[in-house]
Amino acid sequence: MRGVPLEIACDESGSEGEKLIGGQTDVFAHAGVRLGIEDAAACLVELRRRIRSPAVEYKANHLLRTKHRRVLEWFLGPSGPVRGRAHVYLVDKKLLLANELRALVGPGVTPGDELLAAFNDVLRTRNRREPAAGSFFALVGDTAQLRAKVAGLRAAKVLDPLVPAILRAVARWSEDGEQVFLVHDEQPSLKGERLAEIEASPGLAGLKFVDSRTDPRVQVADFLVGVARRIAEDEVNGNGDAVLTTLLAPYVDSASLRD
């Protein structure tokens, strides 16, 4: 007889669907937190006590302000509320796009910015006669076989990291044989085949979408995923903070896609 499923609260940051180039973020992050409701609520109370902002709703940006650096270090640190009870899956969006491009046209291709942008556009284009499609094939060669492969990638929505991230969360938290129940921030894009793929994941006992403001566990996941994405993004862009990168390291999933 199976025991009670392990409840994991999840949230994401940096999700822009399949737009991996020219968007608002360079890194996608997805966090899972194993906290009870009471512990999560206590964490939020402590964050409010330390931050002392009059804001009604606290977000990761509060922790990322310079004046709250000590609070951020406490939150991520060994004596913080989530150490050992959370994990973060990170995706360097440009690297994801480059990997898919190399898989499509060959490992010898040089994924420059112009080619990556054209590749991203052709996979997101709804009207195949738009200039984006012509631009990509002009750069790599136009063959019926290549067009067929691109059509397959477009249909599979291979560039959106959200579903793979949720599947990885299930796999990560069910590694010891426990069934996992995910409590996830609302995601309107997850429906139809995409939702069915998640629900069919081995190890998943159930999935519930909630408004993050109604569940303190998801609010804690929101804090963690927001600061993790910013720390990782600064590192990708050459502005990394060695102390914060070190503090984040124990949370980072080994399956993350980054250099």
From TrEMBL:
Instruction: State the protein's name.
Output: NAD-dependent protein deacetylase of SIR2 family
**Species classification:** Bacteria, Bacillati, Actinomycetota, Actinomycetes, Pseudonocardiales
Query: One matching Pfam family, short form?
Result: DUF3800
The organism named in the record is: Amycolatopsis coloradensis
